[in-house]
Amino acid sequence: MADAQLGTAGPFPTSGPDEDELYHPRSWLTHYVFSQDAKIIAVQYSTTALAIGLVALVLSWLIRLQLGFPGLVSFIGPAEYYQFLTMHGMIMVVYLLTALFLGGFGNYLIPLMLGARDMVFPYVNMLSYWIYLLAVLVLVASFFAPGGPTGAGWTLYPPQAILAGTPGQEWGIVLMLLSLILFIIGFTMGGVNYVVTVLQARAPGMTLMRMPLTIWGIFTATVLALLAFPALFVGAVMMLLDRLLGTSFFMPAIIEAGQRLKYGGGSPILFQHLFWFFGHPEVYIVALPAFGIVSDLISTHARKNIFGYRMMVWAIVAIGALSFVVWAHHMYVSGMNPYFGFFFATTTLIIAIPTAIKVYNWVLTLWRGDIHLTVPMLFAIAFIVTFLNGGLTGLFLGNVVVDVPLSDTMFVVAHFHMVMGVAPILVIFGGIYHWYPKVTGRMLDERLGRLHFWVTFLGAYAIFFPLHYIGLLGVPRRYFEIEGLGFVPPSVASLNAFVSIVAFIVGAAQLVFLANLARSLTHGAPAGGNPWRATTLEWQTPRTPPAHGNWGDALPVVYRWPYDYSVPGADRDFVPQNQPGLAGAGTGTAP
Amino acid sequence: MSLVLLYLAVLGGLAARWLSRQRLGEKPWLEAGPGLAPPPPDRPAAPAAQVGLALFLAAVGLLFALLAGAHGMRVPAGAWRVLPDPRLVWLATGLLVLASAALHVAAGAARRGDGAGARAGLLVAGAATLGFLAGQGLAWRQLWGSGAATAPDAAGAFFYLITALHALHLGGGLVALGSVTAAGLRGLGPDGLHPRIALCALYWDALMAIWLVLFGLLFRTPWSGWIDALCGPA
Amino acid sequence: MALILVLIALGSIAFHLLSPWWWTPIASNWGYIDTTLIITFWITGIVFAALVLFVAYCVFRFRHRPGSRAAYEPENRRLEGWLTGLTALGVAAMLAPGLVVWGQFVRVPGDATEVEIVAQQWRWSFRLPGADGRLGAADIRHVGDDNPLGLDPQDAAARDDVVIDGGDLHLPLGRPVKVLMRSFDVVHNFYVPEFRAKMDMIPGMITYVWFTPTRTGTFDALCNEVCGVNHYAMRGRVVVDAAPAYRTWLDQQRTFSQFAAAPAGRGRAAAPRQVAQDR
Fold first, then answer.
1. Which 3 state secondary structure label does DSSP give C205?
2. Which of A141, A204, A420, C144 lies in disulfide reach of B41, CB 3.0 to 4.6 Å?
3. A413 and A478 Cβ atoms separated by less than 8 Å
4. Per residue in B62-81, pLDDT tens?
């Protein structure tokens, strides 16, 4: 690509599909259902992800019901407990977080923030969503299959996952693996699309270093996902063959219930390597978009440029690259060659450095800012706290010896819920409160938003912070009940009851959020084009919600980076990216 | 596992080379100001479809690299190197190379405006690819019934899995090649054909490169030693 | 918001100090692991409190007031350089002791006695070396009713091995043990919180871990890698005895050859299996 040069004025050729190339819906069905418009696909992805996320939320209630009040209800036996646990984890990580950040936020924001008319391959984009939906339906089908969904834990370790001692061995595991394979195929279609759009469809003047950090995060995460999902694909296909055709990729010689099975020679650790080769980048597939979005939220609502933009970009790229050489830190006590521990502990703790830089820069963006405590900003600040907490406990688990006593205890559960559950979900909420006005043209209700925020943030912190300590005590994860363990004092049961009650309240608070989403669609205050007075391109569209093709007659031309807030000499405290000078309304700036 | 890491390192190198040209060191805030003209847009050198396909193939390549790595960790060294008639597999490999070359010839012909040459190249490529698939099918049949699929060393299972996934990959390409050929035979001119043939040529290059690695992994070839060294247990 | 953030920082510290839940009293030589953990707690605790309090201060001090405007400061290389350097230092301060202790963790002392733990859904069995001081060969192929651990009947070293099928594991106080681990079916993990050390047991391979018991007593062992529907019920007990008591106990155990002669009276834990079939 040609180096950008300054000072050459002149007419700019429009990149991206021209108006006549753009796909045009011909009927209601192709407009709203089989739509190829990235904005519609984004809404489809988001609602599907939130819907299946609600299922996972209910499952978490049931898990907490058992942990907090063992034996209270009769319909949760050990088998059901493990099934709920497995499906909760898998849905949250893959079908909610990955799909919502990349399929939802990615589809909506990539074309709009870059000044493109749409994704580069709209048809493939549509297919991507429908395959995702199919994957979700296959997953849901496993609840109704004979024997129920798989209860192997979301890590699906063989041989356990496909043996009779695990619930859902008949159909559940097969459907789970099929669903993952479908998800990966669908995601790859979408992912290629997002990357090519970022590479090739940017508006004139939008150099890489003028991209908002949201796009940097989503872009890097998508590249990671394209390279990480093949490992899960390979693992899932091989396990499916072991289960259905009796091959022995992962299955060693096994005696089950006194019977020799026909398997032999396979390597269970091989699956763990494949799983975590996917699984660790997956953490960053979720985290990097969250990093990007939270950077933009903080900058916009503190009316200050993001501190150290270059460092932020470099850190995203560095984290992305490093995330491929840390996977075995999930396997310190897996029986792999123990000398790997030295290498993986070192890489894991090195990755903490760029991550820490990002935290400092968010905090330093607040310093001497003009902080508007809007609902999106509240969520962004809460993200800093929970992410900081979860990131720091990651230093315990990444440091190989410290991980030995803590692995597979509630400490791990608390850590990853804080860092990859609560923190990204707070960003998702913040992002929805921030962009809902652009998607619908109406603001979400502020009071309900604050109620939702406080209950969610404080509740989630109260749930997961104490759990670290019972993990330190040695309470294991994935235990249906912990009665009869000598080292567990009775006070743990009271704590579990408390945590469960808080979890029910936090879960109920999400209903407030859903009600807010539904009600504001028709009753929210009209938002105008740019309610947050933000600089990035999606707020400068000629119409709100943006029309098909996004930009009317001419593509926007980008004159500056996305963080010109409170620039000395400018007449307003923000200068949109498509405004040539410091003063006055630029082209296409909505009033 | 080394093969996987090497592959990632190559991709990382390409990404780094590309990033290094994106002026990531610039201070974007200094370039704003009155009278500043936006830089000329980065005119993409390659069409979007080409870039998208290359990305997809990079992911597919990693998938096969992971399979090869898994093979190295799972199958004991020298357990099984086999069994279908080697002449048959060499012949099939030759056909795949021929198909890839024919597509390049076809792309060149289309670029020069030689519609007939392009069509001929497409037909040769299609026929050679079908020949490759037929060879694979025969190899499968020779193995069938030998019980290799569920043998404890998993070499047979890997053979079936890897060749099946490769055939699936190839089948996807054949659908595209078929549609291009059909369009060519229906009279689409060389200008319209060229971008599509170029995509097919890229796809077949990847098919061939992946197959050569898999061939070295599954059979005894002059370069098998290299593959073994790279795929061995880490 | 600012007030709440202060409360979160102080509340977290207070919880840390006052919480009744802390690690179990250690019963092995891995006090170094606890030390590394404490170092990590100090460093991360300070960082956490400092950053959250700083955010609280910013939220309070720089909250929006009519007419206020943010400062314009795109970056500050010196500050960023300092922060990066300090972070690297803090990370090194945690990593270095961690790696040193890991070095000890993976190197088994030469005088360690071998002990074997065998896991299957959902119970533990144990094997101790006999008079010859070493464990004989074993393979899953040899498993049968009179040979629950699959010892090789041809191997002389195996015949005098002490087989404990259904009882507690006893270990002598103050002697390093290298625990070899096998599994017959799925991945398990033998975890005694008081010992700190643990390792997965993988079917088809032998993993190991070593430690020295430093305190007598009876400790609960549990499975710590999800292994099927009765994972939570897969418990065991380890008893650490002083030398005389250990001798007495050991003399009461049966060797493999005795076991093969009279396989009766083995208390196979059939109950968990029953639960699985009731589903």
1. coil
2. A204
3. no
4. 999 999 999 888 887 666 55
Contact between C218 and A486 using a beta-carbon 8 Å cutoff: yes
For residues A306-330, one letter each, b for 16 or more C-beta atoms within 10 angstroms of the residue's C-beta and e for the rest, the string is: bbbbbbbbbbbbbbbbbbbbbbbbb
Residue C143's domain is classified under what CATH number? 2.60.40.420
* Cα A314 from Cα A320, distance rounded (Å): 10
Task: Enumerate the residues of chain B whose CB falls inside 8 A of the CB of residue A158.
Answer: none
- CA C133, CA C175: separation in Å to the nearest integer? 14
Q: Are B55 and A309 in contact (CB < 8 Å)?
A: no
Whether residue C212 has pLDDT greater than 90 = yes
**Chain A residues within an 8 Å CB radius of B31:** 6, 560-561
Question: Nearest residue of C to residue A406 by CA position?
Answer: C196
Residue C222, SS3 per DSSP: strand
Does the CA dihedral A291-A293-A296-A300 come out positive or negative? negative
Q: Give the phi and the psi of residue C170 in degrees, each rounded to 5.
A: -110, 140
CB contact (8 A) between residue A474 and residue C12: no
Residue A153 has pLDDT above 50, yes or no: yes
Q: Do C142 and C176 sit in the same domain of this protein? A: yes
Contact (Cβ atoms closer than 8 angstroms) between residue A126 and residue A43: no
pTM of the model: 0.92
- Determine the Cα–Cα distance for residues B85 and A281; give it in Å rounded to an integer: 42
Extract the tokens encoding C177. 């043990």
Q: Per-block average pLDDT, block size 10, for chain B (234 residues)?
A: 87 89 80 50 68 94 93 75 70 94 94 90 94 89 70 80 93 94 87 90 94 87 79 64
Given this model, what pLDDT does residue A448 score?
A: 96
Q: Which residues of C touch B29 (CB under 8 A)?
A: 74
Touching chains, B (3+ CB pairs < 8 A): A, C
Distance CA A247, CA A250 (A): 8
Residue in B32, B9, C135 with CA at minimum distance from that of residue A577: B32
Judge: B37–A8 Cβ closer than 8 Å, yes or no: yes
Q: Which CATH superfamily is domain B48-231 in?
A: Cytochrome c oxidase, subunit III, four-helix bundle (1.20.120.80)
Beta-carbon separation of B43 and A205 below 8 A = no
Q: Is residue C268 part of a domain?
A: no
Q: Compute the average pLDDT of residues A385-407.
A: 93
